[in-house]
Design goal:
Blueprint: H1 3-15, H2 33-39, H3 45-53, H4 58-61, E1 67-72, H5 84-103, E2 106-111, H6 117-125, E3 133-136, H7 143-154, E4 159-161, H8 162-181, E5 191-194, H9 198-210, E6 217-221, E7 224-225, H10 235-238, H11 249-253, E8 258-261, H12 270-274, E9 281-284, H13 294-300, E10 305-308, H14 323-332, H15 340-353, H16 360-366, H17 387-401, H18 412-422, H19 428-439, E11 442-446, H20 452-463, E12 467-472, H21 475-484, E13 493-495, H22 497-500, H23 504-517, H24 524-530, H25 534-543, E14 549-552, H26 558-568, E15 578-585, E16 588-593, H27 603-619, E17 626-629, H28 640-655, E18 661-665, H29 667-670, H30 673-679, E19 692-694, H31 698-711, E20 715-722, E21 728-730, H32 737-764
Parallel strand pairs: 1-2, 1-3, 3-4, 5-6, 5-8, 8-9, 9-10, 11-12, 11-14, 12-13, 14-21, 16-19, 17-18, 17-19
Antiparallel strand pairs: 6-7, 15-16, 15-20
Helix pairs in contact: 5-14, 6-7, 8-9, 8-15, 14-17, 15-17, 17-18, 19-32, 20-32, 23-24, 25-26, 27-28
The protein binds NADPH dihydro-nicotinamide-adenine-dinucleotide phosphate, pyruvic acid and magnesium ion.
Family: In the N-terminal section; belongs to the malic enzymes family. In the C-terminal section; belongs to the phosphate acetyltransferase and butyryltransferase family.
Pfam families: malic, Malic_M, PTA_PTB
Keywords: Metal-binding, Multifunctional enzyme, NADP, Oxidoreductase
Length: about 775
């Protein structure tokens, strides 16, 4: 994007619609007169009096415990300098936005019109009743140090100057990892810190805590190298003053291992970079423009590990990776401050996370196929959903262990679960199913293995111990994709049916297909031809026990994929086939059927579909509560659809009394149990909203799940094919890697359930 376009886009982004980036949203119902009388007068008086009697109750009855103030006077806004409090407001609103989206922390941004330290401290101090924490931002050195020190002493809620400590924590984590990759020891590296302000001094201090030697650090400000013999040297800069006989950045940078830029744009030239030691580390963190442009640095030195504060290049060393989670952890244990132990815990948690395999959602967000620990990935990406569950608990634990927490966390797994829920990362069911799959992984044959997404999913399910993949396709093509994308799939079986044509196994598969279909118009020659199709071959592998289940359909339409399975494997005796989607909604999982196979099911077919859905949901250890949907409620409308749904319910009640099912009903009644009970108290659909929805036609089911997926932001897992003799699962055309992994997980659990069923039947005999 050109600079001009970017400028206009950025201005439009802020100005369009409601100006600015944040707003206040009520968290309680406000629909009725009653709600309002509780929210405000007279009801509000009760929590007021409770808090007046016991101040700590402010955490119980108000938003204080989750509310952070982002406070600035605009004197060091990014690297833009002193642009005043109003000038800094977009940055402060931006911080508020980041706190919210990454850690679900609410923020009021406060821009103070003062450069006077006493006024600043007094103003913030008297805000203590309102906030759970104070994030000081973009206040210039040296005032920022005194402001933070005094507020920490005088306030009993966490106070942190983010430009100092947030930056120190992130760059500390990045430095540990960069040193490891460049095979350098932190205790020995020579570090040049350009800048001697808030960020630079705190970063240098944390590097020393992590093992760097103060005598190996040279610090530089606008006047040059900070030397011990400088006149009027202030105490802060004095901490890192050197007695070496050097005066300029040019002199200091020669043979240095690490350059830390926390100053201004473009001060490090290519010529200077050339003089650094072998395998140099450059963190050019000035915002918005770094001390040396990313492209110039990597062009100048092939052996450099390069990081900037920007999101549009690899290695974004920016305090956004820290402040949301540091405050999250501190707020959740009601810490009285943010101490050294908490900061170091955050450093190590962030550094460690960079070495873990990257979730697919992060690859997708950056449009990179295989991010992994290395020169271009030294710290996690800000969108990594694991940051909250790794960094916040590490910080909270450190607060408890160092004795500054006022609340305990006992069940850390439950706490992490809660953190995921806060961000809507709460796919508990999928996680439970993954855990179940891992207990006994199965052989899954992928019919379309000459496809990157399938191979990536195969790698994930293999790495996670969910399944043993078997890949079908042209061997050379599969190997090429594996090496192009640096996938890691050693020792995985690859089979090309075209190369199997003369094997006894191939012949066995062909004969079996011919036997099954000879009276349905298939000749032996045709059976032979069909078997070259990987869907037929894969289904035959499942049929003959060479694999436990088949996954296909990513690149072909549904009918083309399902037909071979029906021909080779067939349906369970007396059963029909139907498709089910598991919709992972914000209110929990809801199962939709039939969304895939039966266009306009009859009453009898609806009964069978309902039983199939019931049994499938039960296998996932969920008690099904089934609603038969229509546009009418219990006879309120006549018509073909309500009648067939009503009749299906009647048959289900008679033949399957153990199944909790009711209808016909409209979707809003099915999903709102209070409304259903108030209007139709006779219903047997009790104990909460329906979690299985049976649709009258394929059309309505398909439309409903797609709308929910797009507008309701629910994740759709499926279609899960029900009724086949052996597990075959057909992907949605163009599924994502995550959807394929989910589907494999379901397939493995399905195989496990079928095995259990078989053992049960054997025992009964
Ligand atoms: N990536 C990230 O996460 C973060 C990046 N930053 C960036 O770091 C920079 C500094 O921020 P902060 O510490 O808050 O600001 P401060 O105002 O406290 O400090 C700025 C420092 O930079 C020095 N400086 C300015 N220009 C030069 C130059 N040309 N050569 C040498 N030194 C120079 C100043 O020197 P003097 O003392 O002589 O005035 C001062 O010491 C900003 O660009 C900011 O965007 C900050 C926080 C986080
Ligand atoms: C990232 C940040 O806080 C800064 O540049 O000031
Ligand atoms: Mg800042």
């Amino acid at each position: 994007m050109s600079k001009i376009n970017r400028k206009q886009d950025a201005l439009d982004y802020h100005a369009n619609g409601r100006p600015g980036k944040i707003a206040v949203i009520p968290t309680k119902p406000t629909n009725s007169q009653r709600d309002l009388s509780l929210a405000y007068s007279p009801g509000v008086a009760d929590p007021c009096l409770e808090i007046a009697a016991n101040k700590e109750d402010v955490y119980k009855y108000t938003a204080k415990g989750n509310l952070v103030a982002v406070i600035s006077n605009g004197t060091a806004v990014l690297g833009l300098g002193d642009i005043g409090p109003e000038g800094g407001k977009p940055v402060m609103e931006g911080k508020g936005l980041l706190f919210k989206i990454f850690a679900d922390i609410d923020v009021f941004d406060l821009e103070l019109d003062t450069k006077n330290v006493d006024d600043f401290v007094r103003t913030v101090k008297i805000l203590e009743p309102t906030f759970g924490g104070i994030n000081l931002e973009d206040i210039k050195a040296p005032e920022c140090f005194e402001i933070e020190r005094r507020l920490k002493e005088e306030m009993s809620i966490p106070v942190m100057h983010d430009d100092q400590h947030g930056t120190a924590i992130i760059s500390g984590a990045a430095l540990i990892n960069a040193c490891e990759l460049q095979k350098k020891k932190l205790e020995k590296v020579k570090i040049v810190v350009n800048g001697a302000g808030a960020a630079a001094i705190s970063c240098s201090r944390i590097y020393v805590s992590l093992g760097a030697k103060p005598e190996n650090i040279v610090m530089i400000d606008r006047a040059g190298v900070i030397r011990k013999d400088r006149e009027n040297l202030d105490a802060l800069k004095g901490e890192f003053a050197t007695d070496r006989n050097i005066h300029t950045l040019e002199e200091a940078i020669k043979d240095a291992d690490v350059f830390i830029g926390l100053s201004a744009a473009d001060v490090l030239t290519a010529d200077m970079l050339k003089t650094m030691s072998k395998n140099p580390i450059v963190f050019a963190m000035a915002n918005p423009n770094p001390e040396i442009a990313y492209d110039l640095a990597v062009k100048t030195r092939k052996d450099v590990i390069m990081a900037t504060g920007r999101s549009d290049y690899p290695n974004q060393v920016n305090n956004v990776l820290g402040f949301p989670y540091i405050f999250r952890g501190a707020l959740d244990v009601r810490a009285t401050g943010i101490n050294e132990e908490m900061k170091l815990a955050a450093v190590y948690a962030i550094a460690k996370l960079a070495k873990e395999p990257v979730p697919e959602s992060v690859n997708l967000a950056y449009n990179i196929n295989n991010l992994k620990f290395g020169k271009d990935y030294i710290i996690p990406k800000p969108t990594d959903p694991r940051l909250i569950t790794e960094v916040a608990p590490a910080v909270a634990k450190a607060a408890i262990e160092s004795g500054i927490a006022r609340a305990e966390i006992k069940d850390w797994e439950a706490y992490k679960e809660n953190l995921r829920k806060r961000l809507g990362l709460d796919d508990v069911l999928m996680r439970d199913l993954s855990a179940a799959a891992r207990q006994s992984p199965k052989r899954v044959v992928f019919a379309e293995a000459d496809n990157y997404k399938i191979l990536k999913a195969a790698q994930i399910v293999k790495d996670e111990g969910i399944a043993h993949p078997i890949l079908l396709g042209r061997k050379e093509k599969i190997q090429r994709i594996i090496s192009e994308h640096a996938l890691d799939l050693p020792n995985v079986t690859i089979i090309d049916p075209l190369e199997e044509i003369d094997t006894p196994k191939f012949k066995q598969y062909v004969e079996a297909l011919y036997r099954k279909r000879q009276r349905r118009g298939i000749t032996l020659l045709e059976a032979n031809k069909f078997m070259l199709d990987r869907n037929y071959y894969g289904a035959s592998m499942v049929e003959f026990g060479e694999a436990d289940c088949l996954i296909s359909g990513l690149t072909k339409n549904y009918a083309t994929t399902i037909r071979p399975a029906l021909h080779v494997i067939g349906t369970r005796s007396g059963s029909r086939v139907a498709g089910m989607y598991m919709m992972l909604t914000k209110k929990g999982p809801v199962f939709f059927g039939d969304t895939t196979v039966n266009k306009n099911p009859t009453e009898e077919e609806l009964v069978d579909i309902t039983v199939l859905l019931h049994d499938a949901v039960k296998k996932m250890n969920i008690d099904p509560r089934i609603a038969m949907l229509s546009y009418s409620n219990f006879g309120s409308n006549e018509g073909e659809i309500p009648t067939k749904m009503r009749n299906a319910v009647k048959t289900l009640h008679e033949k399957y009394p153990h199944i909790v099912v009711d209808g016909e009903m409209q979707a809003n009644f099915a999903t709102n149990s209070q409304m259903l009970a108030e209007n139709f108290p006779f219903t047997n659909l009790s104990g909460g909203p329906a979690n299985v929805l049976v649709f009258p036609t394929l059309e309505s089911g398909n439309i409903a799940y797609k709308l929910l997926q797009e507008l309701g932001e629910a994740e759709a897992v499926g279609p899960i094919l029900l009724g086949l003799n052996k597990p075959v699962h057909v992907l949605q055309l163009g599924s994502s890697v995550r959807e394929i992994v989910n589907m494999v997980t379901i397939a493995v659990v399905d195989v496990q359930a079928k095995e259990k069923e078989a053992v049960g039947k054997e025992k009964k005999k």
